[in-house]
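User: Could you check the structure of this?
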Amino acid sequence: MQLEETKDRVEETENTFPRNVKQMGSLDKEKSVYMEDYVYTFLGQLARSGTGEHLAVLVGEVKTEEDGKETVMISGAIEGRETVMDADGTVFTEESWSYIHRQLALYFQGMQLVGWAHIQPDFGIYLMGKDEAFHKECFPESGHVLFLMDPVEKTDTFYVYDQSGRSLRPARGYFLYYEKNEAMQNYMVEHSPQKPKALVEEEEETVSGREAIARFFGFGSKKKVPEEVIDRVDAAGRIRRLLVRKEEAQTAAHHRYMALSAVCGSLCVACFLMAVHLVQNNGRIRTLEGEVLTMQANYDQMNAQLEEAARAVFASAQVTLEEAAEPEGGMEETPTESTAQTAPTIYQVQAGDTLWSISMAHYGTTDQVEAIREANALTDENWILEGDRLLLP
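Assistant: Sure, the predicted structure tokens are below.
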């Protein structure tokens, strides 16, 4: 039983998409568009049926796969008749929509509108703003598509909604598939835009531009076409070409503006980062300058204290030596052993010396620390340096 159900699902999946297909362009991973060959043939006939623009609607169905990807199946096309030309180009009228709905109910029962086609000779496959605005208004569903065809340049493409659903983008490609399509065959038999070959050969002749305009607007071959009609047609063509060029120029200017804005934004960010880095370095430099000035002040203070202590020591030593050289009462006395021991001496400070160690080494006791400090005018008994000369009383 399970094998039969699996087989049914496989057969159903195989029947969902046509087998005989031809890929046009690249594979679009976001949205797939399939157009039946009779539909493509009909649009080609419509493009070759005469000069000027042509409009048509596309019918079929939109399928949504399990992963959410949409597949548009186009199995029919209905010519947009009763259209008119205004300042923006060829547009649908109420009579056009009435005709389309009648043909949809007559030939394509069970199908729905899935998009429209715009055949625009000499305009390429460039999407104009008016076409995008019309598509958003009349074909707002995510599965609705726009098919542009230029029979002169022999190019065509589909436009589909992007992921945001707010703008149109060109599809990377689409598929042509071949199958029995009786609905489109019947419609083409009754509404083929091209005349039978025999009738075409009978009417084949060289037609001037003025006569072509006359036929387009319904004037007879013998009836003179008003000059204002010809001027209006020529002016409309020039205006449309100017509008296309203007829109292309605006698009290019917008792209240049966006690129320039991106470059300026990058430069502003770089300048901001450089300014932050400079401010941080400036703060570090000021801190370092403060520390250097503090060390310089301490050094100057220590140097002044040392110079003052040295002057006091040498002055005291000189006075003591003078007093020792001149005996009292002018009599020369022979120094005794006790006198030699108590006579002041000069001691040069060694590495690791302190007043305590010097007093212990010279006097055998630490009681003379205060006397040594006072004799040398030291403010701090611990502040002596290697190489200093001290007076020992």
